Model the fold of this input.
Amino acid sequence: MKLTIAEKLSQEPKLWRKQLIIVFICLLLLIWSSTALKVQKTDGSGIAVALGIFKGLVHPTTSLLFGMGKTGVAYLLLETMCIALMGTIVGAIFAIPISFISSFNIVPKWLGIFGRVFIMAIRTIPAFVYGLMFIMVTGPGPFAGLLTMSLCSVGMLSKMFIEAIEDLDKGILESLDAQGCTFFQKIRYGIIPQLLPSFASTLIYRFDMNLRDATVLGLVGAGGIGAPLIFAMSSYRWNDVGAILIGLVVLVLIVEALSGKLRTKLMRG
Amino acid sequence: MMSLYDKIFKPKVYTLSNGKQVSQKRSRMPVILILTVAAILISAKVTGFSLTVLVSRISYFFVMLKDMFPPDLSYMARVWAPLWDTIKMSLLGSVIGALLCIPFALLASTNLVKNKVVTAIVKFMFSLVRTLPTLVAALIATYIFGLGTLAGTVAIAVFTFAYCGKILYENIETVEMGSYEALGALGCHPLSCIRYSILPQVLPTYLSTVLFCFEGNVRYASILGYVGAGGLGLILNEKIGWREYDRVGMILIALFITVVVIESLSQWLRSKLS
Amino acid sequence: MLPFLLKSEFHFPREKLITGDKIMINFKNVGKVYPNGTVGLKDVNLTINDGEFIAIIGRSGAGKSTLIRAINKMHSVTSGTLLVDDVDVRTIDGKQLRKLRRKIGMIFQSFNLVTRTTVIKNVLTGFVPDLPFYRSIFGIFPQEMKIKALEALDKVGILDKAYIRVDQLSGGQQQRVALARTLAQNPKVILADEPVAALDPVTAKQVMDDFLHINQEMGITVLINIHHVELALEYATRVIGIKEGQIIYDGPSNKVDDDVLSQIYGQKDGNDEPIR
Done:
């Protein structure tokens, strides 16, 4: 069929109306959200703070940065790392049964949905709420922090565990069955080798994130580097702030690099 | 380091019945297990982890939880304003961060910028900003911008900037460069080449990433109130302090429903993008 | 010797010859040496006049690509003078280079289209350098450009596919979209780097017919890098043979015989053999 150019032009899909509506909606949303902004400080003290932090970063308190005592940055970072590690592990202990309960290829659908809603509820509660609640249980300090961390981790750990579980290759279980293996043997030789690499990789990834979140715990008095940070900031001791920030950033960068390498090694075997 | 391990624990040699020999390296598992257990023990000591304390006092946790239900429904009227604030903060912050990261992501892409020093510096800058926990950024922001939603928006923008930026430049670096070449050959300015060849290829993933980031930001935004950066966190903190747990329960339920709605919306939009 | 191949029917309306500036390309002692010492081009002297249809043949790695891409400075040469439209390509950059490239169209072996978008949008990108800033950011093309794009698609015979996504087309159709994009540019010269290497023989002939038509009806100079010697000799009026970066044959296509081919390819029957 021979078309003329004019006829073809009239066939052009008229997307511009739809696109215009989308753009209009987005603009409306943006204008609406900017109504929430209230500019508080117009006296220039904000800039003084920014400058102060910048100066503090450039001249950190070296005694604090390299100090080896309990108040030194090094010890606090160690404490932060330990909180993150324990939090990840305890979180995993909770997450494993919960994720099995939530996987559709293991349990009936209603149970799986219930499990997922449960996980979502756990995930939605903000970290500091857990923090404050656990402080009631264990008193302030790193123990509370670790428990908070574990509940926060359950959300992401479960999500990724569920993905790994639902990816399970049932064929291996079949062949083990055909060889005459018991239930536990099937789990040990069929399921665990499949799940272990991705579980371990997920744990390491979550540890990395927990390290960053653990600093926050100090803000609620749950140990780690957050408390000294907030004290230093409220006293305007910018050099101390600089020391703490530098230590924190360096630690996270190192852990990130290491964990990245570990995870690629795990995945490639 | 692995070869050192192999020198200390020599590989096991199996001799087959036909005389052939096969050597199998010793499993690394013992070392990994020992290191992991040691790390756990040290961490337990440092953090003061005590199973006895946990078991004996865990009831307090559940008591508080019980007090949250039934929630104080009448309080909902006072929850709306901070809830909208939280959503607005995350929306604006996400958009600002997402837009700002574009030029920097372009600079960080090795297939667009040939200068390796520039790309390395920009990539490092992204890493640096990403290591900063959002709450710490919000804290700093409250000192610079004062208490309130501006600080929260800035903190979210900063996090979104770093997160979306990294994903964007990683995406740009895998994009097909043929059409970029062709557009340059017909006389287009490099920026036009990017607009017409790179943009169409990365746009779906970019939008999907921004939506995903926004999802998470709504949850973060509720925490930011704790440092005074506006939103639900503020009243949440207040009510916990006053031990008005039924009101705390109300806030949490409102938050939960909001997050479910936004995440479903976002997932639906993202599925339409791919 | 060479099989006599039937040319397929043209299916385009006759067009008036487009007059205007004529471009001449002049290589004077041009050479290219790569940073690691490899010699890409050596002592190239060549004059290409307006309106010619030239095929460049030679073994893989002989320098065909380097030669053709030197003309629009996709590759830079390291010595000699390369005059394109009276401008030494070695001396220009930035805005001047873009202005020059506007007049030179390029067709690639792998088509180099934006596969996620529609055919018409790809052709319209040929107009982008002519758009004002605000239009080019949002991709709003004026009606006349859309019509010209459709006309270009009509010239290569795929008007009916205008609003279809490129990745749903066959290889031959995609190369024609690329051709339409180049035509939208209104070039004086078209450089084609192995345009038919990825196509089946029938489609390849169709695309070569398009090139021939563009050359004869629109007066555009065509330079094609090509592996298939038969196609080269059938369509081109002038053949340039390259071996190891040097031009060893430059003359009419009807004078290319077995001896010439064996010089260029180092074989008796002119078939391209993989480098051992």
